[in-house]
Amino acid sequence: MIKAVFTDLDRTLLKNNDTFSEVNIRAMKVLTNNNIKLIVATGRNILSAKKVLKNEHSFDYLIFSSGAGIIHWQTKEIIYENYINKEDTKRAINVLLKDDVDFMVHDVIPENHKFYYWVHHSLPDFQRRIELYKEFAEPLELDNSPTEATQLLAVLKQDEEEKFEKIKSELKFVKVIRATSPLDNRSIWLEIFPQNISKGHSAEWLCKQLGIKKNKTIGIGNDFNDVDLLEITHQSYVVANAPDELKKRFKVVASNENDGFAEVVWKIL
């Protein structure tokens, strides 16, 4: 008997237009009615998640900011949080400055929707994110930079694979997660977190708190930042719109536009 289902949000549970299909809404309720915990795991912060997730949606916990925090969705209580310490935040900023990239430094939880940005190339995807959250964004002042951070995020072009790997190799003192931009669905997002942070790590922590064994879990994702999660859940699936590399590693269900999440739910029930 499955006890917990972990699912990514954007382009997995949600359709491309950031809405829920009626089929997936019904599948979420079926899990709740069968006493199966549903945990949404997203790279979004709480503020961004609230744009698409409402109190009436049937799920139990939100793993947000790629695992930096966990919130009980109905009570809105933050039950887990983490951040990059002062020394590592400064070191990470220096690496990104040296490598000449556009990047953002996010404040600590629960204010991690606020960020400071440094512009080198003014990439369209980077500027779009600033515009989306302009009321929470400020230019980074090096003489007065944040002392601690929930995460740092650098934006690279789609073809800058080598640059991503180079920067990652220089950031061995923190956790580096690759994601595909949810804004243009092309750009590479290089996300920097504390060493022990990922969706998978937070999923393990939550399972221990709830007394759920790994062999009672299922994971569903669509991108590289879901890999840590999919590697720890007992049964792991990717939707058909996932990169080919991931479809070779995990079981494949229908795309997010064709209710792949619900397909997994019907399989386990």
**Individual helix count:** 9
CATH superfamily of the largest domain: HAD superfamily/HAD-like
How helical, in percent, are the residues? Answer: 25-40%
Integer-rounded radius of gyration = 18 Å
Sheet with most strands: strand arrangement: 5-4-3-2-1-12-13-14
Number of domains: 2
CATH arch. level architecture of the largest domain: 3-Layer(aba) Sandwich
CATH C-level class of the largest domain is Alpha Beta
Strand content: 15-25%
Mean pLDDT: 96
What general outline do the C-alpha atoms trace?
Answer: globular
Features of the shown structure:
Hypothetical Protein, Haloacid Dehalogenase-like Hydrolase, Chain: A, domain 2, alpha/beta, eight-stranded mixed beta sheet, Rossmann fold, 269 residues, single chain, six-stranded mixed beta sheet
